Amino acid sequence: MITILCSGSRGDYQPYIALAQQLKKLGKDVRITASKSFKGFIRGYGVEVYPIEADFQSIKIDPKLLQAAGSADNPLKMLLTFNKMKEYAIYMQKDFYAACEGSELIIYHPGCTIGYFAAQKLGIPSVLASPFPMHKTKEYLSVVMYGKTKSTMLNKKISYPLLQRMLWLASKGSVKGFWKTRFGAIPDNFGCPFERHTDESHPAIVSCSNFVFNRPADWDKHIHQSGYWFVEELGEYTPTAELAAFLQAGDKPVYIGFGSMTSLEQHEGLAELAADALVKSGRRGILCGMGKPADLPDTIIAIDSIPHSWLFEKVSAVCHHGGAGTTATAFRAGIPSIIIPFSNDQFAWAHRSFDLGVGSKPIPKKELTSEKLAEAIRFALTEKVVLNAKNLGREIATEQGARDCAEIVVQCLDRY
Q1: Is 123 helix (H, G, I), strand (E, B) or coil?
Q2: Are residues 348 and 383 in the same domain?
């Protein structure tokens, strides 16, 4: 049994579900750790779940702390928020460690570093699986600094320790506390494990397209990146009759939705602002996950939720918050992006989209107006941006990131 340690929101789980699907195709039994709220979602893709009893609701985490994590728009805020949240993570470590027992290999999200130490304790291999590039390189800034500061040798040098320290803080204290309670001492060789890729028993795999951020030449040979990890849907999505009719009624609409950002915190007036921007841009549109404003014109429809992989191929452009998964899906669909970053690494994906010529210039949420959004929509739908987005989509379609990384995992297991 291969166990994947993961936690977070729906978007956090999706690339790991994709990896699990490919491991199953290679004949491996695999399971993903998840709280009860995500059991059905993961099992819906044919992947087994190891239940984590402690979640944000059961351990009564302060909702304001979750909001702070979702709105941290600079590295200092991110560090402070992660440091405050570490006391809650200790409740999850018992279940994470139990999930590792009886496994033959552990794959772990960078926020679940107990996987590395558990594998070391149990004498089995481990694989660091990251949803974005996070290893030191001289070629470009890390996702916590990209687009927010000038790219210099000094900035690139400090940006990766900063990113890794943030991620390490998320689990360091809780792993240490659990280990001392369970075993009476801290783990052997205790420290940040993110750069420990010196042999085949602990490789790293990364979900990212080489056409978006190319694999750096100065990475260790045991760090593997060959494309995004996209889930394979098990059935065709059937839209509501209203949505199906809307899609057929005119030009391809612009999608506007901000995912988990609008579930973490209420953003009053955001849907009305988006609708006003669509009217000003002269485009039809779909508003997702923000409620239904009053007096919407016939050119705009409001929906609750929908699989991005199904819808994005049917729209002209996507306006979103810049989550890594949503950005990847938009890139694959070959359509322009209008990214409104709220926090964390979303700024990096927003700026990368603009730098690649496949999207508009980022508009931070704090600076968003209907006029700015309307102008961004018009820019994103110019001929050059549309062509660039189509070309990027074709390039990404040539990659098989989840399959390739699953093969790396199996090779690691076979060689160990």
Answers
A1: coil
A2: yes
